[in-house]
User: Fold this.
Amino acid sequence: MNRALRRQQVKEKPGATGTKARAIPRTGGSKPSGGAAARGNPFWRPRILSEVISELRKVIWPDRQTVMHLTIVIVIVTIVIGAVLGGIDFLFGWLIDEYLLSR
Assistant:
């Protein structure tokens, strides 16, 4: 739910007419950037780093055979595309030399 919808719900609460809308407290609060959390825990990490580590634990890593297979496929495709682009470059270079620059 986005912020505008939450604010609208707070404003539309029955019995809150004529009073100022209150802010909705955030859930899952963040750790302070310094202070007690940083001093009390010697292994304190910024929240983004903890989230990155959490996401990396969810990854299903491929086995060695899959990595080798996909690496070979990428190398072969790269060589083929490089050869095709090199051939097109050579062809256009030859056409320009023969028909545009020779006259």
Q: What stands out?
A: The radius of gyration is 30 Å. Helices lie at 3-11, 36-40, 47-58, 64-100. DSSP finds four helices and no strands in the chain. The first helix runs from residue 3 to 11.
